[in-house]
Amino acid sequence: MDLKHxxxxxxxxxxxxxxxxxxxxxxxxxxxxxNPCAEKMFGYSAEELIGKTIxxxxxxxxxxxxxxxxxxxxxQPANRAMGAGRDLYARRKDGSIIPVEIxxxxxxxxxxxxxxxxxxxxxxxxHYEMIRAEQQRELERVSKELQKLNQELEQxxxxxxxxxxxxxxxxxxxxxxxxxxxxxxxxLNELKTRFISTVSHEFRTPLATMLSxxxxxxxxxxxxxQHKRDxxxxxxxxxxxxxNNLLEDLLSLGKLExxxxxxxxxxxxxxxxMQEFTEDIKEILKPGQQIAIEHTGPDTCYTDKxxxxxxxxxxxxxxxxxxxxxxxxxxxxxxxxxxYIISVSxxxxxxxxxxxxxxxxxxxxxxxxxxxxxxxxxxxxxxxYVEILRGRITFESKINEGSTFTIEIPQIISHEKENPIx
Length: 422
Description:
Radius of gyration: 59 Å
Number of helices: 10
Helix content: 40-55%
Oligomer: single chain
Number of domains: 3
Structural class: alpha+beta
CATH architecture of the largest domain: 2-Layer Sandwich
CATH topology of the largest domain: Heat Shock Protein 90
Order of helices and strands: HEEHHHEEEHHEHEEHEEHHEE
Shape: rod-shaped
Strand content: 15-25%
CATH class of the largest domain: Alpha Beta
Distance between the termini: 131 Å
Strand order of the largest sheet: 2-1-5-4-3
């Protein structure tokens, strides 16, 4: 067998046994040859297709378009590989449509033009592609739902977190309010204890003095014992004065707590007022003590005489109490256009630094004043009266050098009743 004959046999065997459908057409598009795979794929025998145009295997709705494309290909032929990016379909003998992939090549033999089409049925692949596409769509749908659920969950978590934060903030606020209420209750209990202790002590001492002095007075019946009677009468008077001051402080505190203390501003001639004030205060001065008055500015000021008297009386009485005999207590007053400033200075025992921060608290008494009569209410009431007058009070003090209390009060030229302090 020669090589040429052997080659022809091999080619014929390849054509007959190829797993792809092979169709050969001429220039007019008529089918010249097809292999057994093509017969099987399209359901035609070779005799049924040879001589017919290739459009017999094209879906009816695309036949004319296919003819135009075929003629254009014949005019400018170019080989086309499988899977050139087009969705192609073929029609079988029974009219069913199948998806296919087609590669084209061409050649000339003895002046004749031929086109070879290699066709693959991709129905199974398309089926799986459809399944894969459906799965992809389902995956995208599930992914979107999961994303939506995740967003909803995140929103719920954020809402719950916000609610939790608000709840925690409310709990913290409630806790703070409870702690504040407990602290106020604790402070109130301490005030009650200090009130009972202070008042009972302050009442007991002068009452005991009065009882003792009254009993001793009955023993001194002789004329030459008058000085002894005078001594005990003075002690009784001092005790009565102390009790009166104590009751005044308690009544003032009660009125302040109920908001019943108001200011009534009116003109006040300071020189006449201070002369009257010092005359009243002389009887409680210790031996050798003196009151010095220094005044600058106009003589008339506008204030509440009643409140100012209580303030000055308390400050000056304290200065007398905590100063030694033969000392000078100085009252300085500066009357300016819109305010007046009054200070009371002494050379007494002074106030320790650790006690100064508590000085205006109710029932507070400095450690170095525990043996001196007092309720611890005076300066607290003074500070409140100064507030009612819309002023402020400050002080400077050093142990064993003395203290200076200064009040600064604005002048309000009005006869109208001022609002009570809150």
